[in-house]
Amino acid sequence: MKIANIIMAYKDPEQIEKMITAMRHPDMYFFIHLDKKIAPQPFEYLAKMDRVSFIGNRVLCNWGGFSFVKAVIRSLEEVLKSGGDFDYYNLMSGQDYPIKSVQQIVSFLEENKGKSFISYDEDHQTDWWSHAVSRYQNYHFTDLTFKGRYVFQRMLNAIMPKRKFPLPIKLYGSSVSSWWTLHAPCARYLVDFANREQKLNSFMNYTWGADEFFYATILMNSLYKDSIVNDNLRLITWEDGSANPVILRQKDMELIQKSDKLFARKFDTHVDAKILQELELLIETTN
After folding, report:
1. CB distance 143 to 62 below 8 Å
2. What is the DSSP string of 107-156?
3. CB–CB of 195/73 below 8 Å?
4. What pLDDT is recorded for position 287?
5. pLDDT of residue 23
6. Which DSSP helix (H) or strand (E) runs through 116?
7. What is the dihedral of CA 236, 240, 243, 245, to 10 degrees?
8. β-sheet bridge partners, residue 52
9. Under DSSP, is residue 124 helix (H, G, I), strand (E, B) or coil?
10. CA dihedral 144, 149, 150, 151 (to 10 degrees)
11. Are strands 234-236 and 263-265 parallel, antiparallel or unpaired?
12. Confidence of residue 194 (pLDDT cuts 50, 70, 90)
C-alpha cells in the first residue's frame, strides 16, 4: 500500500512540517504544490524530509478561481507520471491535520482498497445547490487580471443569458467536495477526463468555486461511480453564512475526539497552536 499525499500550500511551512511529521510512515509520500505567487525559499527545507518532494509545474492560484482546480489536476498528473505506482492519492491543504494515527489511516485504506472517497450532494434542491448554480450560470472573471474586470463581469451577466453546462451530465458537489482520497484507477480517470474535455475546461475558466463540484461531477458520471463512497474522510465545520470553514481550536477537541473521520481542517497555528500539540498526544495514544 503506497499513498501519495498531494498538499496544496501557500503559507506556514512549519505547520505543514508538523502535518507531515504526524503522518510519517514507510507507505506515505508527500508532494507539495506551492502556489506560484509564493516565494519558495521558506518552504524548501521541507524537501529534506523523508519521502517529500515538490510539484514542479506550479500554478498561480486565485481563491475561488478555476486556477486552483488546474493546479490540482496538474499536480495529480505529475505524481501519476512520477513512476511511484501509488495505490491512493490523497488531496490535502496545508491546513489539514490527521486526527487518527497514521497506522489507522493506512489500515483503513488497506481494508477499503478499491474504494474512493469524496463527499457530494446530488439533490439540487438543497441550500448549497440553490446558491451554487450561479457559479457556472454566470460569468466569473476571478482568474483574469485586467483592470475593471469585475465591472465588466457585472455588465456581462446583466445582459447575457444564463450559461449552460457544456456536457449532458448530472452535476454533483457540495461545500466539502474539494478534498478527496482516490484509488489509483479513479485518479487516473479524473486526470484523463479533465485533459481530454477541452470544451469543459474552456467553460470552467469563467466559473467560481469550481473545486466544489468539478471532481465529484466527473467521477460520479464515470464507470467508477459504484466504487465511490460519499464521505471525504474529513471533519470540516462551518458557521452559517461563512465562506470558509471554521478554524478549529482547543475548545473543539471533544468534537474531534468523537469524530470517526481520518483528517480535520482547518487549523491555523497563528490562531491556536496548542490544539496541534493536543492532537499529537491524541494520535500517540492511539498508535
Report:
1. yes
2. HHHHHTTT-EE---B--TTSHHHHHHHHHHHS---TT--STTHHHHHHHH
3. yes
4. 61
5. 97
6. strand 116-117
7. -20
8. 30
9. coil
10. -170
11. parallel
12. very high
Q: What is the pLDDT of residues 110-127, one digit of tens each?
A: 999 999 999 999 877 778
Nearest CA-CA partner of 215 in 204, 206, 226 = 204
The answer to whether 7 and 89 are in contact (CB under 8 A) is no
Q: CA-to-CA distance for 254 and 125, rounded, in angstroms?
A: 33
Other Cβ atoms within 10 Å of 247 Cβ, number: 16
Q: How many residues does the chain have?
A: 287
Q: How far is CA 177 from CA 55, 197, 251, in A?
A: 22, 21, 26
* Amino acid (1-letter code) at residue 89: Y
Q: How many CB atoms are closer than 10 A to CB 26?
A: 10
**Cα 166 to Cα 84: distance, rounded to the nearest angstrom:** 34
Long-range contacts of 251-259 (CB under 8 A, 24+ apart): 253/278, 253/282, 256/99, 256/282, 257/282, 259/99, 259/235
Give the cell for residue 38. 509564493
**Grid cell of 72 as nine digits:** 490540482
Closest CA to 31 of 113, 89, 70: 89
Say how far apart CA 181 and CA 115 lie, in whole Å. Answer: 9
**In whole angstroms, what separates CA 34 from the centre of its chain?**
14
Amino acid at 245: P
Domains of the chain, earliest start first: 3-126+165-286 (3.90.550)
**pLDDT tens-digit map of 3-40:** 999 999 999 999 999 999 999 999 999 999 999 999 99
pTM of the model: 0.95
* 228-245 pLDDT tens trace: 999 999 999 987 767 789
Strand partners, 30: 5, 52
Rounded CA-CA distance 268/123 in Å is 33
Angle at which helices 66-80 and 184-196 cross, to 10°: 130
